[in-house]
Each structure stands twice: as structure tokens, then as C-alpha cells.
Amino acid sequence: LSDRLGGILDKLKRRGALSEADVGEAMREVRRALIEADVALDVVRSFTDKVRARAVGVEVVKSVTPGQLVVKIVHDELVAMLGSDADPIDLNAPAPVPILMVGLQGSGKTTTTAKIAKRLTEKGKRRVLMASLDTRRPAAMEQLATLGTQIDVTTLPIVAGQSAVQIARRAIEAARFGNYDVVMLDTAGRVTLDEALMAEVAEVKAATNPHEVLLVADSLTGQDAVNTAKAFDGRVGLTGIVLTRADGDGRGGAALSMRAVTGKPIKLMGTGEKMDALEDFDPKRVAGRILGMGDVVALVEKAVENIDIEKAKATAERMRKGAFDLEDLRDQLGQMQKLGGMAGLMGMMPGVAKVKNQIAAANIDDKVFRRQVAIINSMTRHERRNPKVLDASRKRRVASGSGTKVEEINRLLKMHRQMADMMKAMGASGKRGPMAGLAS
Ligand code: GDP
Ligand code: MG
């Protein structure tokens, strides 16, 4: 999205307050990002309406561009919509607390059941009993039993010929009898939603009165996830959602849609096949993913805190014109020092791997920054503006003045030349240097 963000940044002109047109322009980009991320259309619409309403008329403070401001508002609104507070599994009920796991086949119900059981027995030191209600596939019951052995959690002994409801009742009884704190009920799923599946799940729910009904949904299913969530919530009633395959390359749209459509919190996310690959849902991470902008928002926040925008803007203008001299380099070094080093800054920018490697090769760290600034400070103004005049004798003078060596000065000059060339090239190709982007 650096392109997309760049687009937003470029299109918006600096103004006093965000106008309808500014925001409308940016919203088109955001809309595209959301649709690409597989967010359901009506959710996209209601989301962009909400952001538009919030953004229009907001004063653009001096140190932030309108584009940055809109991106920030969009991001914050996404996080809010995804649910900004951690929402753990609620076990505040008389033991044994029943937890019902529902969802389509292959969504990760059985795996997630075991992951949650592992988490509860480990962290909360709770006693957990797991039971598989998947009567159609004996292999599914075996699967849960195997996972149980692996994570050292008891599973209800398998008795052939019982219905899902009978197994569920037996599980609750066994949990009561065995003094378990939690009983996890892993249900059967179908490849597609159908009435028989819904009826069975509803029946199990009525028989067990679960304290949590968690929908396990595959984040890679995109739009389908919305229909699944809507159907289960409508028919069975959900208390929360667990998003699986958050480790995959899905873009998080499913999370936003499910949350928006059901209003139910996303409590956890599965991040792999292993038993400990379960994390608290992280709305910031998912929001970033939906916008596809890596850490751009973090970068914007950090930059706004630290950078002297006006100065950067002037430098950026000079860079574009190809007039990047050693005074500009000194300003840049100072700002990059503030930003936690060039590598840190570059690391946050999407799509600058090449530049990043060059910088890393130049081995710039904090100490080096300081020495380089000292070198530049030891030059005359004329030398800083016209580095070409630095002959051998001038270099020796600068070296002794700054307590460095001539080789260091040569290295600095070489780096400056490379940066100036790079910036000229960026300017020529219509792209802009990192600092230029921030200051536009
Ligand atoms: P069920 O049919 O809903 O019970 O689904 P399973 O629990 O049997 O999971 C189906 C497959 O998805 C298994 O191979 C799991 O290992 C895998 N799986 C489940 N959750 C995750 C996850 O969060 N990430 C990844 N990468 N794989 C997962
Ligand atoms: Mg299963």
C-alpha cells in the first residue's frame, strides 16, 4: 500500500480542515483496500460512511498532512470496529462451565478446542474435560483424543451409537462428577451450512446451556465467513468468535465483516497448526493487515512525534530538485537519529528493502551518526554547500577539527553522493524519498 498511501498523501492538499472532497478522495482508496481485503460490501459502505462523518471538518494540525490524518482516522476506526478491548473467554459461571465450539467443517474447531483447553489448563490451572460430539466421523473423535493425550487434557471416553445431544449430556455429567472446571464441547461441522447441522447444534445448545458459544471461523474464507457467522448467530446465538488461520495470507476482511454483522467479539486467533499457536485477538494487527500498510500508521505516529516537519519539508523540496548538500545531510542525520536510526526508519517503510540494505551496508549506527555530524560541523559553510571543493588539505583540516580521520570523511562524502544520486533518481521516477513522503 505504500503506493496507495502515497496516493492519498499526494492527492490531498494541505488545508485548514478536511473537506468533503479530501475525505471522499481518500475514502475511495480505503474502499478499494477493504474490498481487496474481502470485507463484505455493506460493511465497507457503513464503515466508510462512519469514517467520512468523523473525518470531515477535522482540523489539520500543522505537523500532519491531511492524508496522514485520514489514514490515522481510518486505522483508529478499524481498530474500534474490530474491538479495541481484549475480550477473554468468560468462565464466570458455576463449574463445570460448558463451552460450545461451532463452525463449518475444516474451520479448525477440533484444533481450537484443544488449543483453548491447553491454554486454560496451563495458565489458569483449570481442570478441563473435552468431548467430541462429531458422531458422523469417528476419526474426528479420535483426533480430539489424540490431541488430548498430546496436551495432557482428558477427553470423554468414546461410546459408539450415541447422538450428539447424548454425548453432550454425558460430558456435562462426567465433568460434574469429576470436579472439572470447564467442559469443552467440540461439535461436528458440515462443508456448507445446512439445516441438519443447525438443528443439531441448536439442540446441543438447548441441552447444555453453554456459557460460551464460540464460532470458529477460517479467516481465509473471506465473504463466506459473514454468512456463516450470521447463520450461526441467528440460529444458535454466539458469544464470541475465534479466527483461525490468522497465520495465512488472508487479509483480515473476514474478521471485520463478522464482527460488524454479528456484533460479537473476536476473542482469540489461531496462528498455526501447533497447540500453542493461539493468541489473544489483536485488532491493531488485523487493522494494519486490512489496510495492507504494514507499519505505516506507526511510522506516521512516530514521525509526527519526532520530526521537525517544516525543516524536513524544505529538505525534501531540495532533494526533489537534486540540490541535496551536506547541510541537508546533517539535518537528515539529526532527524534519523531522533527516529531511532535510519535502519529503524527504513524498516518501517514498505518496499524499501534495497535502500535499507545500502544503509545497513554503510553500517550507520548512533555513534556513527554523531561522528558524521561532527565532521560536517567542522566544515565551512562554503564546503558544506559545495562538497566538491574538499581537496586533500581541506579534508585533513576537517579531520583534525572533528577528531576523525580522512578516510571517514571520504566515506561520508561517498555516502552523501550516493544518497544525492538516489534522491535524484527517485525524484526523476516520480517517487519520493522517505522524508519527502513524510513532509509532503
Ligand atoms: P474442524 O473440522 O473444524 O474440527 O477442523 P480441524 O480442527 O480438524 O482443523 C482442520 C485443519 O486446519 C487441521 O489441519 C488443522 O491443523 C488446521 N488448522 C486449524 N487451525 C489453524 C490455524 O490457526 N492455522 C493453521 N495454519 N492451520 C490451522
Ligand atoms: Mg473437528
TrEMBL record:
Domain SRP54-type proteins GTP-binding: 265-278
Signal peptide extent: none
Reactions that this protein is recorded to catalyse: GTP + H2O = GDP + phosphate + H(+)
Pfam families cross-referenced by the UniProt entry: SRP54, SRP54_N, SRP_SPB
Record-level GO cellular component terms: plasma membrane; signal recognition particle
PROSITE patterns reported in the protein's UniProt record: SRP54
InterPro entries: AAA+_ATPase (IPR003593), P-loop_NTPase (IPR027417), Signal_recog_part_SRP54_M_sf (IPR036891), Signal_recog_particl_SRP54_hlx (IPR013822), Signal_recog_particle_SRP54_M (IPR004125), SRP (IPR004780), SRP54 (IPR022941), SRP54_GTPase_dom (IPR000897)
Membrane-topology annotation of the record: Peripheral membrane protein
UniProt-listed GO biological process terms: SRP-dependent cotranslational protein targeting to membrane
Main location: membrane
Keywords assigned by UniProt, alphabetized: Cytoplasm, GTP-binding, Hydrolase, Nucleotide-binding, Ribonucleoprotein, RNA-binding, Signal recognition particle
NCBIfam families linked to this entry: ffh
Known role: Involved in targeting and insertion of nascent membrane proteins into the cytoplasmic membrane. Binds to the hydrophobic signal sequence of the ribosome-nascent chain (RNC) as it emerges from the ribosomes. The SRP-RNC complex is then targeted to the cytoplasmic membrane where it interacts with the SRP receptor FtsY. Interaction with FtsY leads to the transfer of the RNC complex to the Sec translocase for insertion into the membrane, the hydrolysis of GTP by both Ffh and FtsY, and the dissociation of the SRP-FtsY complex into the individual components.
PANTHER family referenced in this protein's UniProt entry, alphabetically: SIGNAL RECOGNITION PARTICLE 54K PROTEIN SRP54, SIGNAL RECOGNITION PARTICLE SUBUNIT SRP54
HAMAP family assigned: SRP54 (MF_00306)
Protein name stated in the entry: Signal recognition particle protein
Species for this entry: Aquabacter spiritensis
